[in-house]
Design a protein that fits this description.
α2 packs across α4. This protein folds into two domains: about 300 residues, Alpha/Beta hydrolase fold, catalytic domain (Rossmann fold, 3-Layer(aba) Sandwich); about 170 residues, no CATH class. The chain is globular. It contains 14 helices and 19 strands. The chain has a six-stranded parallel beta sheet with strand order 2-1-3-4-5-8, with helices on both faces. Strands 7-6-18-9-12-11 form a six-stranded mixed beta sheet. The protein has a three-stranded antiparallel beta sheet with strand order 10-15-17. It is about 25% helix and about 20% strand. By secondary structure, the chain is of the alpha/beta class.
């Protein structure tokens, strides 16, 4: 068994860097792993400690510091192979280290994310607020909040989106080029004690109380829309008031935007990474925490062992094993009795396990500049509206990133538990397709217009691209056009 490196999450650093203090971050997970794999003679377990609460520290700084520690103190890991188990923000640290510093193929063989904050957390922008500042001052002796790290953790962080986009590029694919095998493990049940916190992200359905399941799953979808050749030929007068789809001379609607790039697991050779949801598992804590929690501990350890011990040629079997563990979790959810403690807070606790999706929309113009003054609309397809479920009824939350206002994260319920049927019912098929519309204005001048985008997803396309427990990143290149008055040429006679 190759060595294993454990990487903790945001705010989990110990007060002192001593060896005695560091293991307190990881509970008894190191001991469990050592017993599982046979002790020090078989596996070396290295415990990282990094500082995330300094306001001036970035994820890039942490990844660079990790690289220096590996080169100066643990060079034997770089010379051979090692595995990684990363909790929460640690997922961004190790993924960024692979992007910035790793050779190809990488010495990091298997990487397991325990509630990895791969697509951020609702707590990211909460942690940057004034209330969090006061809380640190009162309860943690004036500790800083780690503002730049929290910026990367905020939903819709451009830095984080670009990090994940890197691994879709030819020559930089995680499994094929870096030869890194990733796995995701995340719970979908917040601890009941967290329901006292008057913040929705502490008790969202489809979340572990800190990270949404869809955010933790490294299997994500990507779509990039751009103007068609016909759209780029439109005159200024043809753009305003056309709802994004003017008529051609024959009376047909013109398609002005098209999909230029697309990626999802199982499409064009992109492999699916193992993903599982343990039973009664939350983000942290001695009882339900994904790292060392008593209740999910055995199941989590079984999943970690499978991920670390599966060779690359058996990844498909590992994917199926993780699927089976998730199915077993959902059976246990159906069989479990409702704890009396829940009655005060939740009518239907099984709804905590309702699969949700994140749809992240990022809008820029053809020059790559952010477009901040824009609107996004999801609407049912005309004609199906009377018989289908309106897609807007599925949306649970919308967040516009505070530092990147050209990025909005939508959160929607893709499956809902039906107590009468005693099972989860898919909601996306009921929508029967939808329109995605994006329109924008330039508030500083009337000499600029944007060509609105309108794209129709068929029922099959919507089911393929918006999936429970997954995030979908949608990049929109909105065509920005200057008026004829902005620049004129005149002949000199």
């Amino acid at each position: 068994m190759d060595p294993v490196v454990l990487i903790h999450g945001y705010g989990a650093e110990s007060a002192a860097p001593s060896k005695a203090a560091i293991p307190s971050i990881y509970g008894d997970l190191p001991a469990r792993l050592r017993r599982l794999f046979g002790g020090a003679a078989v596996v070396e377990i290295d415990l990282s400690r990094y500082v995330s609460l300094e306001d001036g520290v970035t994820i890039d700084d942490l990844s660079r510091a990790l690289d220096r520690a590996l080169r100066e103190e643990f060079s034997h890991l770089l010379a051979g192979k090692f595995h990684v188990v990363a909790h929460s923000t640690g997922a961004l640290v190790i993924r960024n280290w692979i992007r910035r510093f790793s050779r190809k193929p990488s010495p990091a063989g298997n990487v397991v994310y325990l509630a990895g904050a791969n697509f951020g957390s609702g707590w990211g922008h909460i942690g940057k607020g004034q209330i969090a500042k006061w809380g640190r001052a009162v309860f943690q002796s004036g500790a800083e909040r780690g503002l730049l790290v929290l910026g990367a953790l905020e939903l819709g962080s451009e830095w984080t989106l670009d990090l994940h986009r890197h691994f879709l590029k030819p020559g930089s694919r995680m499994a094929q080029d870096y030869r890194v095998q990733e796995s995701s493990i995340i719970g979908s049940q917040a601890d009941v004690a967290w329901y006292l916190i008057p913040i929705r992200y502490a008790k969202e359905d489809g979340s572990d109380g800190v990270v949404r399941v869809a955010s933790g799953n490294i299997n994500f979808h990507y779509l990039r829309f751009a103007p068609t050749a016909r759209a780029r030929s439109l005159s200024w007068k043809e753009v305003p008031g056309q709802a994004g789809r003017p008529m051609d001379p024959r009376g047909d609607r013109l398609e002005l935007y098209e999909i230029k790039e697309q990626s999802r697991p199982g499409l064009a050779g992109q492999p699916e990474a193992p993903f599982a949801i343990p039973f009664e598992c939350s983000h942290s804590g001695p009882k339900m925490g994904v790292v060392g929690g008593d209740k999910p501990g055995e199941q989590v350890l079984r999943l970690v062992a499978s991920a670390l011990g599966t060779p690359p040629n058996r990844r498909a079997a590992c994917v199926q094993e993780f699927h089976a563990e998730t199915a077993a979790t959902y059976r246990r959810v159906l069989e479990a009795s409702r704890p009396a403690a829940w009655k005060r807070w939740i009518d239907e606790p099984r709804a905590q396990y309702d699969p949700h999706a994140q749809v992240i929309v990022r809008v820029r113009d053809q020059d790559g500049r952010p477009v901040s003054s824009f609107d996004v609309f999801f609407d049912s397809v005309q004609g199906a509206r009377d018989t289908s479920l309106a897609i807007r009824r599925l949306f649970q939350d919308k967040h516009r990133n505070s530092a990147c206002p050209h990025i909005i994260t939508f959160y929607l319920r893709t499956d809902a538990f039906n107590p009468e049927a005693g099972d989860w019912e898919p909601q996306i098929p009921k929508v029967q397709g939808c329109h995605l519309e994006v329109s924008a204005v330039e508030p500083e001048t009337s000499e600029i217009v944007y060509l609105p985008m309108r794209f129709e997803f068929t029922a099959a396309q919507l089911e393929a691209w918006v999936r429970g427990h997954r995030s979908t990143l949608v990049d929109v290149e909105l065509l920005r056009l200057p008026s004829p008055e902005l620049y004129k040429l005149a002949r000199y006679r």
